[in-house]
Amino acid sequence: MGFMQNKRVLIVGVASDRSIAAGVAKAMHAQGAELAFTYQTDKLKKRVDKLADATGSEIVLPLDVGDDQQINDVFTELGKHWDGLDAIIHSVGFAPRELLEGNYVDVTTREGFLLAHEISSYSFTALAKAGREMMQGRNGSLLTMTYLGAVRTIKNYNVMGVAKASLEANVRYMAEALGPEGTRVNAVSAGPIRTLAASGINDFRSMLAEAEAKTPLRRNVTIEQVGNAAAFLCSDLASGITGDVLYVDSGYHILGMA
Ligand code: NAD
Ligand code: 0WE
């Protein structure tokens, strides 16, 4: 019997089979979880349908996390299938591409800053708010994906680093707010992985090479490794862990002179 048996999980952020959220879905399915998925745009629906099929799920719902109506509709719809919810996976991040290259102060705009924070940080709170009722009395768990750029400056990561710092603080405040009802809130900080979100980034290839050469384990991480850590954090094996950030980065973050 898997350690996610009898857990019902909503997964937000699958865009392809290489998405980190897809690795989370597969790991949780392997441990016996029952899954529901959302997709951001109609263009992505087919790919999410395919993963849902592969993981025995029949619940696939539209969701742009910038829209409160769509967020509420997801939980209304989910309530028609399930009488409760054990976990929400938030694997979403966005900033306008032109803000992710060049001098941070030069390229950052008010509009881009706000959008990055709305989609990459506030949306996690928004999901917690809307999903709260369905998660009552179940020792539920909320999980998000972050990156080292939250706590160190990383060239070109720019406003996303500021938004991830907000997201990590969000994890702590949400953990404190929801702890009394048994809900845990954590983040996984993944090392660089080639996903759709990464494919838009200049010179991502050399970042992967640099990480591979310098991490203690001398290899980059996979969505399977991130998925396994995510499954653990959302399971009862992690019942003593909340408000925390777990690094799944082959040890890169411990280095002083990378
Ligand atoms: P991805 O492109 O596969 O996933 C990003 C997801 O965000 C997509 O599914 C996209 O549809 C969704 N999204 C963006 N804006 C949205 C909106 N308004 N409404 C709903 N969904 C929206 O890339 P990924 O690398 O799997 O990214 C997932 C998470 O992992 C992100 O938070 C990212 O910052 C984080 N992360 C990625 C890496 C990496 O190197 N790939 C490393 C650490 C953390
Ligand atoms: O969080 C991310 C990427 C998030 C991301 C990616 C894009 C590309 C397309 C957010 N918004 C957009 N907007 C787009 O239009 N990562 C952790 C991957 C990543 O992105 C970087 C990195 C790493 C690592 C950008 C610069 C430097 C390093």
- Kindly report how far apart the N and C termini lie: 41 Å
- Characterize the main sheet: 7 strands, parallel
Strand line-up in the sheet with most strands: 3-2-1-4-5-6-7
Question: Can you give the helix content as a percent range?
Answer: 40-55%
Radius of gyration: 17 Å
Mean pLDDT: 98
Number of H- or I-type helical stretches? 9
What small-molecule ligands were found?
A: nicotinamide-adenine-dinucleotide, ligand 0WE
Q: Tally the beta strands.
A: 7
* Overall outline: globular
Structural class: alpha/beta
Order of helices and strands: EHEHEHEHHEHEHHHE
β-strand percent reads 5-15%
The low-confidence runs, each spanning 5 or more residues with pLDDT under 50, are none
Structure description:
This protein is of the alpha/beta class and 258 residues long. Helix content is 45%, strand content 14%. It has helices at residues 20-30, 42-54, 68-81, 104-107, 110-135, 158-178, 196-199, 204-214, 223-234, and strands at residues 8-12, 34-39, 60-62, 87-90, 141-146, 184-190, 245-248. It has a seven-stranded parallel beta sheet with strand order 3-2-1-4-5-6-7, with helices on both faces. Helix 3 packs parallel to helix 5 (110-135) and helix 5 (110-135) runs parallel beside helix 6 (158-178). The chain is globular, with a radius of gyration of 17 Å. The N and C termini lie far apart (41 Å). The mean pLDDT is 98. Ligand 0WE is lined by residues 93-95, 97, 100, 147, 154, 156-157, 160, 192, 197-198, 200-201, 207. Ligand 0WE binds at residues 93-95, 97, 100, 147, 154, 156-157, 160, 192, 197-198, 200-201, 207.
